[in-house]
Amino acid sequence: MKTPFEGAGLHFVTRLDVLRDLTANAGMTTLWSLRNYRLLFSASAISNLGDGVSALAFPWLATLITRDPMLIAMVAFATRLPWLLFSIPAGVWTDRMDRRRLMVQADLVRMLLTFGVVAVILSAPEFPVARAELYIAAISVLAFLLGSAEVLRDNAAQTALPAVVSADQLEQANGQLWSIEQIMGSFVGPPLAGLLIATAVPAPFVLDAASFALAAGLVWCMAIAPRLNSKRRSWLIEAREGITWLRWHRIILQLAIMLGLMNTVSLMTLTVLILYSQEILGLGAAGHGLLLTAGAAGGVAGGLLCPNIAARLGRRASLLIALALLGAALAVIWIATSVWLVAVALFIEMFAALLWNVVTVSYRQRLIPDELLGRVNSLYRFFGWGMMPFGALIGGAIVSLVEPTVGRESALRLPYLLGAGGMGAIWLYAWQQLRL
């Protein structure tokens, strides 16, 4: 963080005092005195570097195989489908099992699956066009399995955080974790992926696998007191307890459904972004990676500033502002004619997403009882993330269906116009119905 320059004669010790005061006000000093938090933070940083690399590498790999937007959308669909299929079972497992061990096992599985992607690439270095469907199917299966492991890992990590920090530290901890995820996952990862792909197509996936292994080791070193589990009962009974709790807490159910609609819009636009970047903006792999860093910068700023914004404005006002900014960002991308304008829109979009996340995740972690946290979190993500794969398919289908009528460029822009309208409708609902 840079402080304002106040004169050439400012003493070094004064700058240190200012920096110490800023970090203390942000909660950094207290949080960083917690060993478990340091390990969890470091593991998140490393695993999200790998995620950021693969976030560019997977769709770029798909475009090397085919230019068909529906086939490219299938990879995104397969990646997100596990959130629909496995969110509820993952919640039961999270509340039954040692959450630390579950995170370690999930990361090790992701490491092995990522090496599987490397094997597919090496088996066909030039990807014959005649067999595009076969290779897309193989990549999609591996993406589905990776997404399944991610469901378990992410649900366990978010559920474990209240056992790592105190309740009054949740906003700061979530803000810092979201910030480092953005720094590594979107600010560092995509440009690095662009450079690695230019060197060798398998290279980013090798780095991704190594990041999962290192993250697993860091989480293994955490020391979290074992939870006192009640007698294990039927899976359906345990799942029903989470469903009953969520049904009687209308606000959290509202937020979950709103998040599902928002993520549908987000995946609809994100799926076509790779083609938008290549064909409208004329960017290569490295350029696209740099473009994604604009969104990461918004995420970093959001992680640092949004806890204070939420405290100052209140939860409801913060969420309404986030929704308005999300819609505005998509509208800008719809009409944008320059890379810089798209970069600004991505910055605003990610800042708004972080404002939404900091408010809603902390609210949820504080309100849900620990013995139900895994199950209710997973149900929340069932609604909030389970609709994402359909957003990916919708994005690919829109482009494929309207392209013969309006042309390729207009077809690639249309999801952003529809997305802006969708965010506007969600904002109107929140303004009328959401009461925090």
What is the element layout, followed by pairings?
Elements: H1 12-25, H2 28-32, H3 35-65, H4 69-96, H5 99-123, H6 132-160, H7 170-199, H8 203-220, H9 235-247, H10 250-280, H11 285-313, H12 315-335, H13 339-367, H14 370-386, H15 388-406, H16 408-433
Helix pairs in contact: 3-4, 3-6, 3-7, 3-8, 4-6, 4-10, 4-14, 4-15, 5-6, 5-8, 6-14, 7-11, 7-13, 9-14, 10-14, 10-15, 10-16, 11-12, 11-13, 12-13, 12-16, 15-16
Number of separate helices: 16
Q: Compute the number of strand runs.
A: 0
CATH topology: Growth Hormone, Chain: A
Question: How many domains?
Answer: 1
Pfam families: MFS_3 (PF05977)
Membrane topology: Multi-pass membrane protein
Domain Major facilitator superfamily (MFS) profile: 252-436
Protein name: Enterobactin exporter EntS
Verbal overview:
It is a multi-pass membrane protein. This is Enterobactin exporter EntS. The protein is mostly helical. The protein has a single domain (24-223, 234-433), classed as Up-down Bundle (Growth Hormone, Chain: A). Helices cover 84% and strands 0% of the residues. It is built from 16 helices and no strands. It has helices at residues 12-25, 28-32, 35-65, 69-96, 99-123, 132-160, 170-199, 203-220, 235-247, 250-280, 285-313, 315-335, 339-367, 370-386, 388-406, 408-433. It is globular and about 55 Å long. Mean pLDDT is 82; it is low at 1-28.
